[in-house]
Amino acid sequence: MSTAERARSTHGGLRGLISNLAIRLRVLAETAGKRFNDLMPKGLYARSLIIVIAPIVILQSVVAYVFMERHWQLVTHRLSAAVTQDIAALIEVQRTYPQDRDYATLRRLARERLSLLLEILPPEPLPLPGPRPFFDVLDAALSRELALQVGRPFWVDTVGNSALIEIRIQLEDGKIMKVFARRGMAYASNSHIFLVWMVIASLVLIGIAILFLRNQIRPIQALASAAEDFGKGRDVAGFRPRGASEVRQAALAFIEMRRRIERQIDQRTTMLAGVSHDLRTILTRFKLELALLPEGPETEALRRDVDEMGRMVEGYLSFARGDAGEAPASTDIEASLREIGNDAERSGAKTTVTFHGMSTVKVRPDAFRRCISNLVVNAARHGDTIAISGHRDHRWLTVTVDDDGPGIRADRREDVFKPFMRLDDARNVDDGGSGLGLAIARDIARSHGGEITLGDSPLGGLRANVRVPV
Ligand SMILES: Nc1ncnc2c1ncn2[C@@H]1O[C@H](COP(=O)(O)OP(=O)(O)OP(=O)(O)O)[C@@H](O)[C@H]1O
Ligand SMILES: [Mg+2]
């Protein structure tokens, strides 16, 4: 391998390594992001609380840390240094000048000028150092200063809650100088008040934030549940725009949208009803005229067509009438399914009905019944065995109708939902309805906020699946 080749291959290897690394990093970042998202609360209330509380907590922690680290330690060091300087001066005086027998002048000086209680003890060994407190700025500061400024063996006792701290120093002549100082002289003792105030202030802030946020979130929740109810075809009673202007705007838009949709449905219904009604009038006239004609093969065919058309118009009329006006009510779905099953049984199909879960669900009873019954009638028309099964969990009511008929090809399963669409041309035409059954069923399912899907049944025929939110 030439040098150039080797260089190129190393280069390529490096590039591969880097791109590999980049991919790995991206995957890592994505999983971390997803994990973080999973951990974050999902509700707006909890999220906005975090948005308010997190900065407070972070700010407090930073301030508290900086304060402890810088200010508090510094002040304590300064105070400790001052006390130590006083003690060092006293030691100097004791060593340099002749003293009275019981050090009366020195003690008076210490007490009156330096606020220190002083005693000189006869020579004795210093007590053993006590257990060091885990976190004690004072102990550390004082020990450092004593070592630095006095340079003699010493012993300090800062533990305990007493207002005094005790310092013992071994003098050059072996005697012990015992000093009591007020804790406050050596230690920035009431600094924690600052922290306490900070915590209290932020608790008050958080409390206010909680109150305010709750009031802001409530209108959004009301809007969400109103939209949800409307989607399920339920009455949205007593909803009115409230809260911040954006939420109010959304609520107004929702109300306007609802009004428009209701108006549209109304319009469609009236128009269809009008058309069907007019057609029915004409059909009745046809029938009358047909009755007046002499019997014959042509009139027979004509009569059949008119009858078929009459059925279609009837179907259209009931489609147009729809389930408008029916109020949602708590309905025993299992009982309803069993009734439908019995009807199918009577029409000659072997039918089983099963149900799991709480049976009462709020639906428009007649409409829902018609929806399922349309599916079951289809199943009975095309198959011999029918299985109806219902299942209800905390979110959905699902009803499945299976049959052992010929089924519907996957690419036609959307078509059959179109009004008047029938695939029966090759099958027995006369037997049929108008091709509205599935259109009506889907209409009803959707007006409940749900959906119908078709699929393959384990029985060999068609499986129709209705799912509506509870
Ligand atoms: N269970 C089924 N198995 C096979 N084909 C089906 C089944 N259900 C419906 N179809 C097909 O879908 C078409 C449309 O069904 P739809 O219920 O809308 O109308 P229809 O049953 O023909 O008339 P209607 O229900 O108005 O009396 C049917 O004509 C039929 O070809
Ligand atoms: Mg049908």
List keywords for this structure.
alpha+beta, four-stranded antiparallel β-sheet, 11 helices, 14% strand
Give the overall silhouette.
rod-shaped
Q: Low-confidence spans: pLDDT under 50, at least 5 residues?
A: none
Q: In terms of quaternary structure, what is this? A: single chain
Count of DSSP strands: 11
**Structural class of the helix and strand makeup?**
alpha+beta
Termini distance? 73 Å
The hetero molecules present are: adenosine-5'-triphosphate, magnesium ion
Largest sheet descriptor: 5 strands, mixed
Mean pLDDT: 86
Which band does the percent of strand residues land in?
5-15%
Which strand order do you get reading across the main beta sheet?
6-8-9-11-10
Share of helix, binned: 55-70%
Reading the helices and strands in chain order gives HHHEHEEEHHHHEHEEHEEHEE
Radius of gyration: 45 Å
Number of helices, where a helix is a run of at least 4 consecutive DSSP H or I residues: 11
